[in-house]
# Entry
Amino acid sequence: MLQQLDRVGGLRRVNDFVVKFANVNGSGSASANALFAKAVLRMGVAATPRNIFPSNIQGLPTWYEVRISEAGHIGARGGGVDLLVAMNPQTWDKDIGSIEPGGYLFYDNTKSLPEEKFRSDIVVIGVPLTEITNTAYTDPRQRQLFKNIVGLGALSALIELDPDVIRQLLAEQFKGRDKLIAANIQALEMGRDWARENLDCPIGLTLRHADSVGDRIFTTGNDAAALGAVYGGATVCAWYPITPSSSLAEGFARHCGRMRVDKATGTNNFAIVQAEDELASIGMVIGAAWNGARAFTSTSGPGISLMQEFIGLAYFAEIPAVIFDVQRAGPSTGMPTRTQQADITICAYASHGDTKHVLLFPEDPYECFEFGALAFDLADRLQTPIFVMLDLEIGMNERLSKPFSWDDSRRFDRGKVMTAAELEAGKLFGRYLDVDGDGIPYRTLPGTHPTKGAFFTRGTSKNRMARYSEEGVDYRDNMERLLRKHNTARSLVPSAVCRQSETPTPLGAIYFGSTSPAMTEADALLQDNGLSLDLLRVRGFPFGDEVASFIDSHDQVFVIEQNRDGQLRSLLINELEIDPKKLTRILHYDGTPISARFIADEIASRVGKVAS
Amino acid sequence: MTFMAKPKLHHPDLQKNSLGYTRRDYEGTISTLCAGCGHDSISAAIVRACFELELPPHRIAKLSGIGCSSKTPTYFLGASHGFNSVHGRMPSVLTGANLANRDLIYLGVSGDGDSASIGLGQFAHALRRGVNMVYIVENNGVYGLTKGQFSATSDKGAKSKRGAPNNDEPINLVGMALQLGATFVARSFSGDKAQLVPLIEAALKHPGAAFIDCISPCVAFNNHEGSTKSFDYVREHNSAVNYLDFITTKPEITAEYEPGTVQTITQHDGSMLRFRKLDSDYDVNDRIAAMTYMQERQAAGEIVTGLLFIDPNPQDLHLHLKTSAQPLNGLQEDALVPGSAALAKINAGLR
# Structure
């Protein structure tokens, strides 16, 4: 197949292309894939991998797509892939179809395939991986595992991925297990040697050392949020396994195991319970927070559906709770391993009756950490559930972000908790009294004082002194105070981030969460085509004043979301009384992450419509 | 309005316990349940047990779900924090509260609808985790607040007030508690204060998951001919295996009983339970035998009451989780926040 390298004029790009590995779930490809992405990063080139996987454990197709961009774009690019590493015969036809014209196909040609299985407009590179590994190894498990490393070796020669960097990473990964390091390096060299002897290296897609990574870190949003919970002082975690959020609770357990075990006693300064379901998870969180511990659960859409009644209780009885919602594609079971931003409405208005909740929208691991820690301060300050809205795209995929930072002088904001001394001194305590005019009452923790400050927490209506009351005047008084409290939250949640275009423009775009890098890149694409946008990244709900004034100051505002119904747009219309005509939906909801090309194309085509 | 404060006037000679509290200090507001409701007797038994055990009221947290039984925590321990949560979910809220502060005493009050129907899952899981608590089900076999529907503990063949028979098998909460590993399992009857008060006291002193199924007749909807949870029926079919006499940390005194009819169990904290055995063969430390015994007697139409099983050295959730001796809700930044230096190391590991 080597001759095709000459026949097709392949794409020529340096440090700017998309590689996709088509694998079989459970074949040991994951570690070789991760090694590839990490090696690109170590060369100083921004690499953003995405696991594309079915709801399955073993045997089904999975893909690992790596966006390589020296310019630093880490969102999905959109379009086809430039280099496909086809290791899964099951998905061959679909995979071949996904290659950009002029792109490259790398495959195992141990068994020859008929001509019609290929395309004439791509460059085909065959490497007999099975043959090489079958000759070199006798153990079937080794044959399978090292096939991935041999393949990586061949690939490294083809695209000039620095082998020293790979060797260094292998040495770090298997530190202290010299035999394993040597075996892996041997497999790597085997692939490199074969490629250099038999193929015309390099191909048109190449890597070179650059400096577009800087001091950035490479991690997942779930792990970052878990770390945020550690720094935010969470001591109780109750959760129920659900994709794509499980790794958040598991990450919390791992971090706590390292950093929250008391050295003197060996006891744990945390408690983690895998509950029997999501109802029990949130119940435990509410019980713990009622009793003064910082507590959280992590879940996804179906879990949020199950938690509705308890969320209403926490809202109405005013109990802090932190809920990490790592969103996936709904409704119902939906697509458990695909990404979406489709829980905005259900979280903003969770539970029956009049409710409104506080939401935070992190864009990357850095903000997952920041907002993860902040959520506990907000929950205690506002005495209400706080939702941290991740999604599968930022939750489960590793991506580059600013390094985490922490100010050691920072103290927890425990909110308005009346102490035994204050009660003893005769300070008036009414659980639902709005003493400060911000809608936030004082609470006492169980066990505080022998005779003062006890009250009965309930989901039923009550008066300012926490006594059961069905009087309309008491009910309304309480509901209005809850609204005041929600208003107070507007100034406490992270404010929206505005990025003004260099030239004045009547067009604005509002986006949030994992859409961020694709939006940034789309903005650059649009700029290149002469279209200027002002951007507003919403980071919290309730919306601050800056959101309304941004909309006010533009003629047309695009609201870019990853759901079908424009849920954030509805929230903007509903809460800020915006004229719906002013807000144009840009919606991406097929379960894949939104891409720069999609946003740019959609906005460009709508601007045409707007102008007409 | 259903909030009625009790007058605070005390008789000057009212007996005080060593903490200086009278029994009135353990009471709550005036009950709004029906006159003669079994639940009020249980509330009174809780008041008396806490008074006699000399527990500081504010160190008890009382939690409940939804239903007639779950309303009762307002009628006792007025100086304690209370939490009337959502239907069938008291166990999870209590579990969380317990995780946050292991130093308080947790009293969960529930009913048969709350625990055997909507909350059966949470009932089961709280017991199997060994949450240190007293879990009382005020069991009347009927939904009172919604006016007389059968609950899941209604016996098969029992008749509703209107004469309709219940065709479904009953859920036996005591049997489940035994099977699920509760380390203190008892059944009692709201009309038998002599049996109930010491059982509550023993359960409050038990450092593990203590469960009491308390048959508590509903005078409004389940106290008629044909009911198997009426006062008359329970009195006629009550088969007590033992009577706890008292609980104390003082040396035992056994002189007044026949040998072989009194058993003493010393608990982890040194407190001693002494009880009279009504069935001399019954062994309260044998979980398997307890299950068999109860099934046999139930088949014979008897309602077995008394302390059915106790593990004198129970384990609890905190032991399993190795949580710090200091309550989690009291830990501050120094114990919880790893700081910027640790974070710098984490950053370095992510490059």
